[in-house]
Design goal:
- By secondary structure, the chain is an alpha+beta fold.
- The chain has a domain of about 180 residues.
- The chain contains five helices and eleven strands.
- The chain is globular, with a radius of gyration of 21 Å.
Length: about 270
């Protein structure tokens, strides 16, 4: 068989059409896989990444008050700038409502809303297999200066939902699109009548429409895609009860959004 050289004379228009078709097919291929979240975590006194006794998770340069990525063992410092791309609510499937209950996976809100509330709960959902769905509020963010972090997420649980709501409201009051706003996040102290603890706080910094229009375009495009997939329930694909069986635990990614957290269940 005669070998023929592939023509290098490919028009930009043809190339663009091929890329667009490939993109659509890849999106279809990935439907249901769910986003692979890069959790932005805050180092606290009980954080395992601070403990030499847990060598698989230990990060030598990490200090209390620093932000970090556990999987990459990457320290981001005690203050970072972020752009909130979307404020969304998802559900973590857990074996029960205790703090250290086994984690089985993440459910989208649309599917979770088809299940009834757990008895005596205002927000947890009851699955037929006995497990429960516990809401978690995400801020999906662009980390300014770190384009290598593709799917950055701050996960607020329990009383952290107060911060999530305040942040969402602050962004709404400042702009019709949160994806044009830059915030600085750092450790903040939170308290109620019984306890005090620390969580991820936010401070408004600037508008990208005034300081960096190129980054604004990037963030707006990313935000549009994320919000569309959330609305269509493809950001986190539908799950089945069978997929939540104990034997499937090894196939689910670890819930790396778990950090030292308060559990004031009345806060949702």
């Amino acid at each position: 068989m005669e070998n023929k050289e592939v023509s290098t004379q490919v028009s930009d228009e043809e190339l663009a059409l091929l890329i667009e078709e490939n993109k659509k097919r890849q999106e279809k291929e990935n439907e249901g896989d769910g986003v692979r979240a890069d959790y932005i975590l805050l180092a606290k006194s009980g954080t395992k990444a601070l403990k030499k006794s847990v060598p698989d998770l230990y990060i030598p340069d990490l200090k209390i008050g620093d932000f970090f990525l556990q999987k990459e063992k990457k320290v981001l410092g005690d203050e970072i700038k972020v752009v909130p791309l979307a404020f969304i609510t998802l559900y973590n499937e857990r074996e029960n409502d205790t703090k250290d209950a086994k984690f089985f996976g993440v459910w989208n809100k649309t599917q979770a809303d088809t299940f009834p509330l757990v008895a005596d709960s205002y927000f947890n959902k009851q699955l037929p297999n006995g497990h429960i769905l516990v809401p978690v509020n995400w801020v999906m963010i662009e980390v300014v200066g770190h384009p290598e972090i593709e799917n950055a997420v701050i996960a607020y649980k329990a009383t952290g939902s107060r911060i999530w709501r305040k942040w969402k409201e602050d962004a709404k009051n400042r702009s019709s699109s949160s994806a044009t706003l830059v915030y600085t996040i750092k450790e903040m102290e939170v308290s109620n009548q019984d306890n005090s603890w620390t969580d991820i706080g936010f401070t408004y910094t600037e508008s990208l429409l005034e300081t960096d229009k190129a980054l604004a375009v990037k963030c707006l495009k990313k935000s549009n895609a994320l919000r569309k997939s959330y609305e269509e329930a493809t950001l986190i694909g539908n799950r089945t009860i069978e997929a939540s069986a104990p034997k499937a635990i090894a196939n689910n990614r670890e819930d790396l959004s778990d950090t030292e957290d308060s559990f004031d269940d009345t806060d949702f």
